[in-house]
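User: quick one, fold this
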Amino acid sequence: MRNQPSTINHQPSRADWLVPAAMILAALLLGTLIMGVADAEVNSEVSGIAYDGNGTSKTFTFPFGILATSELRVVVRTVATGAETLLVLNSGYSMTDDDGDGDYTDQPGGSITTLAADAYSSAYEIWITRKPALTQTTSIDDVGYLRLDALEDTVDKLTYEVQYLRRLLYRVPIIPETEAQVADMNLPASPTRASGFLKFTAAGGVTTATVVEPVTTVTTYWETRLGTDTSAAEVRTALDAQEAEPNLDDAADGLFNHGITVKNGATGAGFLRLYEDSDDGTNYADINVPALAANVKWKLPAAAGVGYWLSDANGNLTIDTPAGGGDMLAATYDTDSNDIVDYAQEANSVQDKDFGDVNVVSGVWHADDLIGTAASKSNNTAYLAATAGFAIAITSNGATQLYGYTDSSNPPTTIMARNYGNGGSPPVSITMPVKKGNYWKVTGAITVYWIPLGS
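Assistant:
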């Protein structure tokens, strides 16, 4: 009997088709679970930008991404004062992304437009920064699928938060890198640092110290003025009230108990300015000094009463009380000759005093050596008197008439002196005083002289 090969019919088992099916299903599920394409990475450290106002521009771009419009912060800074104003979306500014699709991360960035009526001038700066919410709102568990763009947004937000925190660190003091864990930067507990101020220790660390109120000794006058006032505003009010009072003699203690030094910097000499009664006007008198070669002193008399001014060879000035009563009211000195050229005086007002060409003896003024040398002049000729003086004319015999004329006209016509004799009389003469600045002449003279005064 021949053996016949047996025939076996092989039927596919479940395992044969289950594996390929599982692979196909896994591929489908993977495509379903992983959906979306990542938008853009954060490849820039820029998280803020600033612009100077120019009075024209109202739209400003920002080159960094944000995940929500609420993360954008727009601040207008006043350059002169540093004051900052936070603008509010839709009332202070409007915004749009770069490509108009509402996504501020794909380009990234966008622009803002200020909504004020006028563009900000150069007196302002516009600061645009990112302030992300410090939260994590993406859930990746118990979901049917995972979006890659959502995953990248979560990672991007972490980067945004790190950049924001670094911007905050730029605004705080930081010790050098090599001093980390070397200098103690920990502050004392609040009970210790309360009402204190921050200071550095000898080792370079920080601590706090208690404020020590300074003790200042003030005069009784200011103690009365300030009373119990303690605030700076109250003190300023008291000082302003004092400034409105031009003198300090409203109380016995309203006097200075020390010397007063008055300077005026490099602009001029120090001065005291005394105003007239306000009912009379606003005029004032200044008391100051010229450039001095040495220090001088002005001394008032010990006795009561008005005195007169005396100055020694060094320029020291003293007001002394005159002997015999009366007061010297005023005196004007010729600085070229050191002579008194004008004065007003009451009787017996001036003590004996030698002023050089002028001296006072028993209250009487005397002039020495003030008559000049006689100069020969011509008859019937008009002359202008440069100083006060005397015109003297002499005839050859008594039969000739002498006339003296003087006034402000040239030639003068006013007769101020006249003399003549008879035919047998000796020669006659006239002496005529002439005022400074007037013209003078004589007629009928043989000899004429001019004698000036005050030379």
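User: anything notable?
Assistant: The chain has five helices and 29 strands.
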